[in-house]
Amino acid sequence: METNSMGFPILSALIFLPVAGAVLLLLIPRSKEMLIKAVALSVSILAFIISLPLFSGFNKATHAMQFVERQAWIPTWNITYYLGLDGISILFVLLSTLITILSILISWESIKNKVKEFYISVLIMEGAMIGVFCALDFFLFYIFWEAMLIPMYLLIGVWGGPNRVYAAIKFFLYTLVGSVLMLVGIIVLYFHAGRTFDILDLATRTYPYQLQFWLFWAFFAAFAVKVPMFPVHTWLPDAHTEAPTAGSVILAAVLIKMGAYGFLRFSMPLFPEAARAMTPAMLTLSVIAIIYGAVICLAQTDLKRLIAYSSVSHMGFVTLGIFALNTQGMEGGILQMINHGIVTGALFLSVGVIYDRTHTRQIADYGGVASVMPVYASLFIVFTLASIGLPSTNGFIGEFLILLGGFTANQPAGVLAATGIIIGAGYMLWLYQRVFFMETNAKVTGLADVNMRELVTLLPMVILVFWIGIYPDTFLGFMHESVRHLIERVNTGGAPGATTIAKTVSEILQ
Amino acid sequence: MPLVMPDLKPITPEIVMTCLALFILVADVFIKRKETLALLSIIGMAAAAFTFALPGALNTTFGGMFISDGYSMFFKIVFALNVILTILISVKYLAVERVNFGEYYALLLFSTLGMMIMASAGDLIVLYLGLELMALSTYILAGFIRYDMKSNEAALKYFLLGSFASAFLLYGISLAYGLTGTTNLDRIAMTISEKGLAGKPALTLSMIMIAVAFSFKIAAVPFHMWAPDAYEGAPTSVTAFMSVGPKAAGFAVIGRVFLMAFPMVRAEWVAVFIPIAIMTMAVGNIVALSQTNIKRMLAYSSIAHAGYALLGIIAGTADGLASMMNYMLIYAFMNMGAFAVIIMLRSEGFKGDAISDYEGLSKTHPLAAALMLVFMFSLTGIPPTAGFMGKFYIFMAAINAGYTWLVIIAVIFSAISAYFYLRIVMNMYMKDPKETVTLTTSPSMGLALAITTVAVLAIGVLPAKVIYLARVAFP
User: Is A23 on the interface with B (CB under 8 A)?
Assistant: First the structure.
């Protein structure tokens, strides 16, 4: 057994504290709703506090895994309980713990039925999310990756909107089909590498190109669905729209980041040659997602659906940055994942705030909200501008780096992607105009402005928007070493010589 | 030739079981409270299981006709669990169905005895003996609710198609005997390789006949027709028993016969089992999608699970067999758990076996709904439940044996299966109750649910021990 330098299994604590909290909730009688909520909130805050030492104790000068925990788990299959963080994953753990608190706060009054089950689901979700980002054993990773489906399925299906059952099963099946294909890939890799699931060990080996090619696509099936990338994105608008606010926030802020994280953690270091060869295909899909997602946003009449499609567009930027395979692009991509988590999470939180009051998601039912809820309107504009990528907000930093990286890697891709930003400004500002300005709709007159609880929920997001926007190095500093190491691996890993899609196709045909 | 007393130590569990079943049959006359019989059966079964561990229990006896090894022992543990859990969920249920007779327990024990003999059979005749003992007892059990037409129908269908399968088996056995002059599994294999019989059409025919007979027993497609009707009509506790026990016994003999007697014609029987496995997974999972009766749905689900387990046989390696054994154990827990919940819904004047009866169960009975949720996710194979570990091991063994393409088919069907298992979850959690469902609970039912839930979750999180057991059981 290996323990980390802190002398305290901090990652295990982070994963299992929420799970233990969920078990505790199980024991509380159903009628004590206030106690249930209080326990859930305290557990999530405690988890957040425990996660803070990660932030301060992280050594930025190395790409090595930190806070490592390792213990034999299933010796017959050489599976270990192996956790650790590096510069790529650490920020996501912090994001997860923060988002969980906010999700619980925003649901305080809006969740009225099956309260107990709701908070149990949210807490189990938190444990599984953190587990996904910490796992360094492929099997362990897969367990968390799949286990996450259960609470999310329930969150959408039980507490969601009118069409929730359809959205929940669609989410579940899309993700499951992708995941099981990855599972086959994982097992093939396991035997090829001589029976090991150790991700770090696997990432130091060289695999034959044919194998890399197939496994890259097997993994792509799982990660692309989660991101979601262009042809397999259709579950997302339904799931986001129908999920309760907390569900949408968790989905947008953390869950869909796991796809991109998967590319960074697995696809690239394991299959560098295939990743290099598939770059054109990935860039194309990214650019399609950026433009297609943005154009579709213009036609949306449903608030949540619009933000959902904007996620497709924004995640297109993320995959574009990642597959640019250079420092700027990749760091921009990772930062943009965090940004998107913050901004889109905040937008969904904001929509939740107003939905609790009006119970409608139709843009046409709003108008003139700025004069009724001025504080709310000013918070919302911050997130709108951050989503557009205005300088001094976090969105600018991320998108700038991605475009820089994308342009360096492939000029047409960079140029085309930039148009996505313009359309993005269009639909977001137009949305803001229709909801907050124009004449006051009868349905919104007399609405109360944000209360203290809602303000507390949104304020951390505002702070982060400006913090990353003005001094991004706090966050970029974490990833420099890990990204450098990853790029080294991708660009030099495997046999020398450029491989192209054409070559690949001809090889496969032979 | 002096008559030498054969070594009885390896066969002690079977002797204890025989005495126990006969004792229950006689005691039934004197004991009015049938619950006492249930208790005695469980204690007796536990005692028989205890003799598994006696010194000298692992040996071959009766001149190679009876083999007691790690492999058979593992299956006997599954059978023992199966019968104990069945008795636990039956006690109250029999009273509700108004068929609270003592013969029920005796028949369960006889059937289990048959399975135990099958698992230990080193000779085709002994195998047939065990199979018939198991099957005949189960036929009667399927028709145990005499006044119910559906139960009668179930028994009759099961009996007719079961006899059909037995005929196939006997035909296959006689062909094998005709070719090799022996019914001993080891000697069949030896004769095949010595005389170079591999590839002879008669031998292939014999192998196919035997494969068909066993496919009936495990309800593999296209020999599954009896299963949905038999599962739906039989008393629910018997359905639970049938879906685990005879299936596990079937797999036990498939593993034994094909790997012990027919290793020389492996290519041929793999070619037989691959299409069977694919069809079984396809039909089981796809037809289950449209069911409205939960017992029928679980019948198709049980067919589908036989398809996954067949992958372990097809892999044909030590890991393949171990994964199949492991799967049977896990399947016993999760399926028994699901049936336990189904039985709870049955109350006086309320059938409770329609899928729509589960609507809003989480509101009226949150605990029962939560347990059902665990079993449904386990049957789907979502971690961290035992069902995932079971499937994972099978997929791993099959990929290691080179059947990656077959595993891709299996995982796709496994993903499809999520739809019908989740339909139950959806009904329980996402719909409002239409009518108030009263649960029939009892302490023994609670115990059965506790055992199955803990097992499903514990094996899901800490599978190391179970996997190790399955792995070392196979020589």
Answer: no
Binary contact (A76, B468; C-beta < 8 A): yes
From the list A75, A146, A165, the residue facing B382 with the nearest CB is A146
| Per-10-residue mean pLDDT, chain B, length 475 | 78 92 91 89 90 82 88 92 94 88 92 94 93 94 90 92 92 92 90 86 91 92 90 92 93 91 88 94 92 92 94 91 93 94 87 86 89 93 91 93 93 92 90 83 91 93 85 72
Q: How far apart are CA B421 and CA B400, in angstroms?
A: 29
Residues ≥6 apart with Cβ < 8 Å to B26: none
Q: What is the pLDDT of residue B378?
A: 94
Residue of B371, B382, B423 to mutate for A, most A C-beta atoms under 10 A: B382
CA distance A425 to A128: 35
Cα separation, B465 vs B475, whole angstroms: 17
Q: Which residues contact B279 (CB under 8 A, 6 or more apart)?
A: B220, B221, B222, B307
B377 contacts A74? CB cut-off 8 A: no
DSSP state of A205: S
Q: What is the mean pLDDT of each run of 10 residues along chain A (510 residues)?
A: 63 91 89 89 92 86 87 88 89 91 89 88 93 92 91 90 89 91 92 89 87 91 90 90 90 91 90 89 92 91 90 92 89 91 91 88 86 89 90 89 90 89 91 87 82 89 91 87 87 56 55
CB contact residues (below 8 A), chain A span 321-360, against chain B: none
Cis bond upstream, residue A237 (ω within 30): no
Distance from the B164 Cα atom to the nearest Cα atom in chain A, whole angstroms:
38
Q: What is the structure's pLDDT at A327?
A: 87
The answer to whether B264 touches B193, Cβ cutoff 8 Å, is yes
pLDDT on residue A125: 93
Is there a contact between A183 and B392 if contact means CB atoms under 8 Å apart?
yes
Q: Which residue among A114, A147, A183 sits closest to B411, beta carbon to beta carbon?
A: A183
CA A118 to CA A125: how far, in whole Å? 11
Task: Name the residue among A179, A189, A209 with its Cα closest to residue B400.
Answer: A189
Three-state DSSP state, B293? strand
What is the per-residue pLDDT for A504?
Answer: 56
The encoded tokens of residue A275 equal 């990743």
- The Cα–Cα gap between B123 and B182 comes to 9
Query: Structural domain boundaries of chain B?
Result: 9-473
A211 touches B at CB < 8 Å: no
What pLDDT does B199 receive? 81
Cβ contact (<8 Å) for B415 and A147?
A: no
DSSP-derived secondary structure letter, B354: B
A132 contacts in chain B (CB < 8 Å): none
Q: Specify the pLDDT at position B15.
A: 92
The per-residue pLDDT for A495 is 46
Distance CA A287, CA A419 (A): 10
Give the closest of A74, A142, A191 to B467, CB-based: A74
**Beta bridge partners of residue A83, listed in sequence order:** A69, A135
Q: What does R_g of chain B's alpha carbons equal in angstroms? A: 21
ipTM for the whole complex: 0.90
Q: What was the pLDDT predicted at B474?
A: 66
Yes or no, beta carbons of A169 and B426 under 8 Å apart: yes
The verdict on a CB contact (< 8 Å) between B384 and A190 is no
CB contact under 8 A, A73 and B464: yes
Closest by Cβ to A76, choosing from B388, B415, B471? B471
Q: Which residues are within 8 A (CB) of B456 and not within 5 positions of it... i.e. 6 or more apart?
A: B330, B333, B334, B337, B374, B375, B378, B385, B386, B387
**For A194, nearest residue in chain B (alpha carbons):** B400
Q: Which residue in A165, A181, A188 is closest to B430 by CB distance?
A: A165
